[in-house]
Amino acid sequence: MKNLRQLPFEDLGFAKVDHHRAVRHGMPEVILGQGKHPDQVAGIAQALLAKSSNLLLTRATAEMAARVSALAPETEYFPASGVVRVWRDKTLHGKGKIAAICAGTSDLPVLEEARLTAEVMGNNVEVIVDVGVAGIHRLLYQRERLMEARVAIVCAGMEGALPSVVGGLVGCPVIAVPTSVGYGASFNGLAALLGMLNSCSSNVTVVNIDNGFGAGYVASLINRL
Amino acid sequence: MKNLRQLPFEDLGFAKVDHHRAVRHGMPEVILGQGKHPDQVAGIAQALLAKSSNLLLTRATAEMAARVSALAPETEYFPASGVVRVWRDKTLHGKGKIAAICAGTSDLPVLEEARLTAEVMGNNVEVIVDVGVAGIHRLLYQRERLMEARVAIVCAGMEGALPSVVGGLVGCPVIAVPTSVGYGASFNGLAALLGMLNSCSSNVTVVNIDNGFGAGYVASLINRL
Amino acid sequence: MKNLRQLPFEDLGFAKVDHHRAVRHGMPEVILGQGKHPDQVAGIAQALLAKSSNLLLTRATAEMAARVSALAPETEYFPASGVVRVWRDKTLHGKGKIAAICAGTSDLPVLEEARLTAEVMGNNVEVIVDVGVAGIHRLLYQRERLMEARVAIVCAGMEGALPSVVGGLVGCPVIAVPTSVGYGASFNGLAALLGMLNSCSSNVTVVNIDNGFGAGYVASLINRL
Amino acid sequence: MKNLRQLPFEDLGFAKVDHHRAVRHGMPEVILGQGKHPDQVAGIAQALLAKSSNLLLTRATAEMAARVSALAPETEYFPASGVVRVWRDKTLHGKGKIAAICAGTSDLPVLEEARLTAEVMGNNVEVIVDVGVAGIHRLLYQRERLMEARVAIVCAGMEGALPSVVGGLVGCPVIAVPTSVGYGASFNGLAALLGMLNSCSSNVTVVNIDNGFGAGYVASLINRL
Amino acid sequence: MKNLRQLPFEDLGFAKVDHHRAVRHGMPEVILGQGKHPDQVAGIAQALLAKSSNLLLTRATAEMAARVSALAPETEYFPASGVVRVWRDKTLHGKGKIAAICAGTSDLPVLEEARLTAEVMGNNVEVIVDVGVAGIHRLLYQRERLMEARVAIVCAGMEGALPSVVGGLVGCPVIAVPTSVGYGASFNGLAALLGMLNSCSSNVTVVNIDNGFGAGYVASLINRL
Amino acid sequence: MKNLRQLPFEDLGFAKVDHHRAVRHGMPEVILGQGKHPDQVAGIAQALLAKSSNLLLTRATAEMAARVSALAPETEYFPASGVVRVWRDKTLHGKGKIAAICAGTSDLPVLEEARLTAEVMGNNVEVIVDVGVAGIHRLLYQRERLMEARVAIVCAGMEGALPSVVGGLVGCPVIAVPTSVGYGASFNGLAALLGMLNSCSSNVTVVNIDNGFGAGYVASLINRL
Amino acid sequence: MKNLRQLPFEDLGFAKVDHHRAVRHGMPEVILGQGKHPDQVAGIAQALLAKSSNLLLTRATAEMAARVSALAPETEYFPASGVVRVWRDKTLHGKGKIAAICAGTSDLPVLEEARLTAEVMGNNVEVIVDVGVAGIHRLLYQRERLMEARVAIVCAGMEGALPSVVGGLVGCPVIAVPTSVGYGASFNGLAALLGMLNSCSSNVTVVNIDNGFGAGYVASLINRL
Amino acid sequence: MKNLRQLPFEDLGFAKVDHHRAVRHGMPEVILGQGKHPDQVAGIAQALLAKSSNLLLTRATAEMAARVSALAPETEYFPASGVVRVWRDKTLHGKGKIAAICAGTSDLPVLEEARLTAEVMGNNVEVIVDVGVAGIHRLLYQRERLMEARVAIVCAGMEGALPSVVGGLVGCPVIAVPTSVGYGASFNGLAALLGMLNSCSSNVTVVNIDNGFGAGYVASLINRL
After folding, report:
1. pTM across the whole model
2. Which residues of chain A are at the B interface, by a Cβ-Cβ cutoff of 8 Å?
3. Complex ipTM, two decimals?
């Protein structure tokens, strides 16, 4: 590689699409729908689909999903999480399983975003739902499945305690995702975020509140190693 | 007890219903409606009603209430607080009275959530309304009723001062519930929450903002002792 | 009782000592040493000891401890927690055991404040140390001892997850004490406090950060019921 | 008066002393010691004493007090509050009494700053100490003294509930002073500040945390009306 | 008066109407519409109008206004501020003028709430609009009008600097009202609130964000002295 | 100029229009639409257009835009940013180019507000879009264009890192505009704001969140020097 | 494995030493010195050294270091970071290199804690210092070294922008460590923390402020995969 | 310019000294003493002095000052602000005057840091002290001096209102520096910071709390244009 400035990207005027990211991260650029106009989303999607089999669009509206569907008939739309996915190349890249766990039923949309991301990046994802720490036996019941994971994603709102407990049970890296589930002093996920940052389990790192995508992305990078 | 992992729960896919909670806490699992789909709420309610006479669903929408009503004709819906209740077994478990007090008329929905919870858990609840500290004579007028309580629940928004004053008048445990009533520097109940946490009355403990349910739950546990 | 205004208190000029509190709460007034001059502490202690066998002074300096020792030779001083105690009347008032649990070794001073308070108020206290959630087997090992408690006090810093896990294991009321143990985003106990307020275990109430005294006090009131 | 720009002030280089303030507010400029060098304090004090009988210096160190004493032998120093006062002209300007009330013994230094300010501005100050809301009978006992005040200053830390209760008892304006007394979730007086700003008593206004001076100043202005 | 507990109030079930407040504060109880049901508002209004010529209802919806209009044909409704007023007894109680000042056009609704409150409490109110500190000449132009006031109310959003400047120009008490006008780092009035609490003008006290009512109320109490 | 108080302004009752600002800042008063009634906006616009060729109205609704269009047929409306502009006098006042840069597509509305402001104040604006730091080569590719600027405006949400990187590349002043683009722990732009205030590039100053107008304004003042 | 409750730990009274952690995480329990008494630290260290070749103690005082040195002559003490290390078994467990990068010279202590942790866990660590984003060429100069890493640790204070830029350059997982380096609006690392949580680079996860240990720990777990 | 990566810097191991900054910004790298070891400071200073006549070191201890003095006899040390300066080349680069203004005497150290920075970068600085908004006549008295400035620096703590007032008086860019002067709800400068960010004067930009250096630096860049 000669010079960083000569890395390829495509200028759409309102966006510069980074086709080189697929080379660097093994994954084409992902579109964050939030704050973009459907026209902008469609334009970026078209540019990406011209060079890639797969596409991931997060925080999408139904209108954005329709616009992408018009470009690729295989498009899937998941309204609970707002994910739009084109998954044509299903090659496995991950060497093992990713465990994706959530504390409560209300955390499912965030878990879904994480799962869809990890899948489109070529991973087997093992999903474990509603194993919050107030009924610890439900989690312990899943212990064998947890132990098989090479990397774990743990989504939890409210007090955000689940990653610490999971982190103590497994020996693999744990990516904690605070969710905005809760009310009052949860302050839209701040309580869970602070809890996870202060985890007494040393194998825990944290992503932004409700950032299932980021967790799925990093878990995928780790699972390829 | 053999093994914690063998405690019973029922896996609905999107939720794991903890039937053993009734054994541990003397109360079936309570459903928090917020963040759940009506289908999920109905599924959990069905599973719980199959094994229990009573049911409590909090933060429910009218649609959720209708779904539960379809399962149990005795279903009551309280739109101010969003509580849905099936109260078929009205056995008294509490040994004395629970006083449930609120500072202002706007705190009534939170008080209602606390009262309905305590009732369905088998308690006599004595309700005292609109006795905020700016007219202290209104509270003092109720002093005899306060003194009869084995445990008191005090809901207040704005400056959240009422639990401290009540706590000084009575000798029993006081559970303080900050409410999100107020504006500006109340910061959606933060002012009341901080006030209650710093109470100079030593018999005060605190639950989350607007958590009438939690207060009713703990008061019920205490009243059984 | 005729009139609230005729309740007895003793005016020291800089303080009004509330001798009637012993009647209302079954416990003489407790002195918070923080922010008071040693002379003031000694004055209040003298007034209280004139009418009471026992005395509790929290957040005390060594100088304050010496001043109280000069008044009562039985005075004990616990420098880790800063508690000064005169415990001459050791009558038991609690009907069962209070479990006092802490997550880590660094939480011991707060646990000590809770234990000393509960003891001087006439309780048997069962202490369980260093059972943080990152090694959940250490907690589960103590499960029988936990199940025997009528009320539990749980002290934890960092993410403050222990009360939720304990709350799920036991059926009794749990009083959660966030501690200021931690660094960075623990923000001097704020993370633990928020976590506990958002606990998914319904039997948890919360007191102020590092307020072992308050937890011991309320647990004692509950244990008398 | 022709032009605002021609109002008198005296330029000391590091400070511009506003001699006209005595005309506008009936009180010479007050020196805030915090953040100033003793030389600067002494310079400003000298300039003020050249034109005024009285002087008030707040948040002063012992060294600052000594420097002022060297300028005026009548200088008083109050180390608890850090106030330095030269009070040679004791003319009464206030038409009635100012009640100065504090919730606990630890609030005394802030109360002292308020009292000394009001006195040097020519007021009779009625001091009421340690009447926090956890023992409401202590406050009610003082009710006649409260009712005589034309304006009340109420200092409280922790939950800061006292101004609301006092505000409900009296009909006069109440100036609430949150103090930094407390620990943990008092966040150095933030809890008390928020509580007072959200007071349900309509006759309460608020000054900065620990700002006894400001409360004494405004109370004095009101008492002259 | 014998006993505080015998003060009169009227129990409506959902509210306890404090008729004695008119005796203590010279003003009947004021209704805060926010958080109340229109039926509750109408019930309280009816109880108050049975004993009082005037009525003030703040933060009211149009429906609430209609309900009060049905009770009293003289009812005025001010939709910008949400105030409902019945002003039949227009006796002047204030001894001088109250200046009511706002920094920008967007602060007018808060100013209106303050003005209507002060008027119904019997005061002449001098209104000065749009004199924010970025064009200081507009304020200085009003200097004579400012100097005539016995007490000043100053409403400002954004940086909230106007009370400090006004406070330096006048010698009377200044009641500062932070408004939620602004965006971004104004944090819904927090910036203005903090600014006013830290005012370098000693004659400034502060009320809650957008609390025009409170400012009008206290200004009225002061103006009667 | 004799006296600041004699500076011209025009009193519309609800607003005081500052015609002298054009003299002081070389730019007529700008109208912030937010919080104003369309009638008020139209009134101020009319007063300004009577004395000025150009007009800028920010945070405008479509209705406000229509009202201004009725006054001046040249009116342009930009719905993405909410800017309304009358740009009849297109004289250049800036001596060089202003670079206006944004990190992502979602930051475009804030960038637009900055660009439109700078243009109406007489500047050539060079726009560079979607050069966020996660693909640093896209920014480096624009390096020559950056180096030509006399002053740079950099808009970024999320972590707000772009101004630091741009600041290190150029030698001119950089005005950083945090945007509210992001979710979760972006706290509506707070993360970006704090990041920019702590920039390790010494040539960076900051304006309020989403304040594209302020950045365009100051950049214009600098570019005239 | 039979039963989680039978996992081995050793009870020291004030601590329960988890010898099984070495099995689960491939690393003996690490001692956090902060908040512990030197006697407690020495006791835990002795228990651990009885079963393990290596030891890691973080946030240690010189006294704690001396106590550990008395137990093991190979003890190293690093006063800048407060790390105490016994590194007798230097077996390599990591499959590739860990890059450990910091933005400025003041971040070196945090970087040191990360490096020492990763080394004692059996990794080659490549250290890159003082490559903050304000001089981006210094970072780009290190690009080849960055590209060789299997996982990267990036420590930065102030605006915390470096992880985003590094994350865009490399394809491996990046663990971001906010440091408390900075002043004013850095709020002891909060600004950097929020920045990192909002990183626009998808391969970034975050640990607590100044938590170099956690970053080194997780990087080691990843590097073994 | 060929390649950004070939820009010169000097690697000291613990620091990479950026000699090219002098080319880009016309100013050698400035050393932030805070968080660095005196040896590190001395090493960087030696490297810089080898290529530059002038040197600026901020937030320095007396020991750091002594170390630099040993390298250059012309070294000046300003203990109030902690600035160390070597000012051998006094060439003027600024085209006009920079006004440096502070609200109170306690803001002088921050003002000093700004002034020393601007001077060493080749500017005439006009200093105006103690013109806070509570005595607006003191500021207006300086109006002519203000009007002569090409750029203004305004330092203020507490409510931070001065930049808005100055911004309204002058037509040039204003750089606002919030200071940590104040107490209580100033929250170490947060109140002033928020105030300045919300300034209603459009010509104001803001730097970090107490960042006199940054203000002096940017003012210097502007004054060269």
Report:
1. 0.96
2. 104-106, 108, 129-131, 135-138, 140-141, 143, 181, 183-186
3. 0.95
